[in-house]
From TrEMBL:
Keyword Hydrolase included in the entry's annotation: yes
Domain Choloylglycine hydrolase/NAAA C-terminal: 2-222
Protein name from the UniProt record: Bile salt hydrolase
Main enzyme class: hydrolase
Keyword Hydrolase in annotation: yes
Family per record: Belongs to the peptidase C59 family.
EC identifiers of the protein: 3.5.1.24
SUPFAM superfamilies: N-terminal nucleophile aminohydrolases (Ntn hydrolases)
Highest classification ranks of the organism: Bacteria, Bacillati, Bacillota, Bacilli, Lactobacillales
Record-linked CDD domains: Ntn_PVA (cd00542)
Highest taxon above the source species: Bacteria
Gene Ontology molecular function: choloylglycine hydrolase activity
Amino acid sequence: ADKVNITPFELIPWLLGQFSSVREVKKNIQKLNLVNINFSEQLPLSPLHWLVADKQESIVIESVKEGLKIYDNPVGVLTNNPNFDYQLFNLNNYRALSNSTPQNSFSEKVDLDSYSRGMGGLGLPGDLSSMSRFVRAAFTKLNSLPMQTESGSVSQFFHILGSVEQQKGLCEVTDGKYEYTIYSSCCDMDKGVYYYRTYDNSQINSVNLNHEHLDTTELISYPLRSEAQYYAVN
């Protein structure tokens, strides 16, 4: 009776407007009640999963029959169904994967050779299902090298996301319509800079939040540069 009713598409803006840390979100999330209202009558009500992170920790919020459920997120990635606890458990099936050259553990009686680089990743799923993309994103993120500069870190982030990007034509959802990665984005929480790129424009764009007056009720928007950008070298 004392809960705040909000729609699924209002959850993230509401959390950002109310709390300043993941710890505060975890403390207050059970005060919310999600109501079944679509963002648009033309769109179905989707079973959403939310990743909330700050500089210290990362959590996942899911809406289940019993209410809102919170999980700590040790891998720092998230995809859609199935539920997050099963996604984490499924990683056990890939514990033998490695970023190094594997040793022959098949049998001492057979002389087997690592004839190619990257064979430690044999078995890493390559399909476009959300479960497989979760495994691939987690493996890529957790084995990627940390960069020492801001530009290097941003570049590395988009390379990590690139491992699970979907291209037009590979995942048909209805007759002649395909699911694909419309945009990718990240945020530098130390400097308040938001980076993004779109499907048609792979150039990384940035928005510095410190250049705007944020204590306002007015919506701030920017023109979307969707056309491909090329740097002419001659």
